[in-house]
Write a structure and sequence with these properties.
86% helix; mainly alpha
Length: 182
């Protein structure tokens, strides 16, 4: 079962990463239904194999969304998937700011279980920065969709947004390592 769970997650990550290109290039040949059904099946499998109730719920929501899109044959709505992913990530990161530990603090405590108060404040600030990134990503991607800049949408959501995430992640990592010495 763990191998199957890992395989489903790996396929989901790969298909989500490639989704902008799968949709942008594939829609001409397949239309909405095959892509939406593929995404629904992958999210259904993720829901079935998830151990955490929140993951199951979010996976089911996305699965039903893709079933709805397949049923409606909504070409335009298929472009909104990257926005929905950013919204879910924003929700997770922002919600963690109202919990005892921010999501970045949880990650930091995997390496430093005895994180000092300065580290807690720093990780909370980094979580806020990620929330800002997701907000900007949502706004920019939405603008591309509303403007019907489909080629730019594919390039931004399939390449540039991942590069920006990598720069933010890498920049924060280097700052933390060399400036804060954490």
């Amino acid at each position: 079962m763990p191998r199957l769970y890992m395989a489903v997650n790996a396929v989901l990550v790969l298909v989500s990463f490639l989704y902008p290109f799968i949709w942008y290039f594939g829609q001409k040949y397949t239309g909405v239904i095959p892509v939406a059904v593929l995404m629904a099946i992958i999210w259904l499998l993720r829901a079935l194999f998830s151990r955490k109730p929140l993951q199951k719920l979010l996976s089911c929501v996305l699965m039903f969304l893709f079933v709805l899109l397949a049923w409606l044959h909504s070409t335009a709505a298929m472009y909104w998937y990257p926005v929905m992913v950013s919204m879910l990530l924003l929700l997770v990161f922002a919600a963690s700011l109202f919990s005892r530990q921010s999501i970045i603090e949880r990650f930091a405590r995997l390496q430093h279980p005895d994180l000092p108060d300065t580290g807690v404040r720093y990780t909370r600030r980094v979580t806020q920065i990620w929330c800002g990134f997701f907000c900007m990503n949502i706004l920019f991607t939405s603008g591309l969709i509303l403007g019907k800049y489909w080629h730019a949408w594919a390039v931004y959501t399939g390449v540039i947004s991942y590069l920006l995430m990598g720069i933010l992640f890498g920049g924060e990592f280097l700052y933390r390592r060399f400036r804060l010495k954490i």
